[in-house]
Sequence to fold (211 residues):
Amino acid sequence: MAKNKLAIFKGFKIRRHWDEKNEKWWFSVVDVVTALSESENPQVYWRVLKKRLLNEGSNETVTKCNALKLMAVDGKMRLTDVADTETMLRLIQSIPSPKAEPFKLWLARVGYERIEEAEDPEKAIQRAMQFYLKRGYSKNWINQRLKSIEIRKDLTDEWENCGVRQGDEFAILTDDITFAWAGLKTKQYKKYKSLKKVITHPVCDRVDFIC
Fold:
């Protein structure tokens, strides 16, 4: 998959860049503002929004919006404010628009579900099963997938008991295991299988500009 490609959201083109090192998407803030705010001048809208967020004390959100060179309308590569998925979802919460409302409701629901799952972990398993069933996976595949997650957790628990620290040491061991059965390191395998993150949304089912 190309590192830079357009995503389409309700007819609007969203420029994005895949950060292979950190395995995350960066999205053009102005493009998302254009799609959700209905502003006639999204550049000015974004400047005003940044100022409002700073005045409200959301300095961290604004500083997380980096600048990357993306293809502009005139065909030239120009510096553009971009944000990763987490920061973009935070910005969407600050856009007072009917188009942004479904995302805000979805975020509220996801937050509530996480609280439920903290109290009853079995609900997380049931939701995972429903997620895979909706995407057409067989029950046998789902059972194998859930079993592999359980095995992975037992393995990482054992690593922790042996003094292996989260982070680089976990990554090295995971790479060794992946290479043993796939002949590729973890990131290489993900690239080979074109594995990217996808966030589902209850209204439009798949939010293509946040994945």
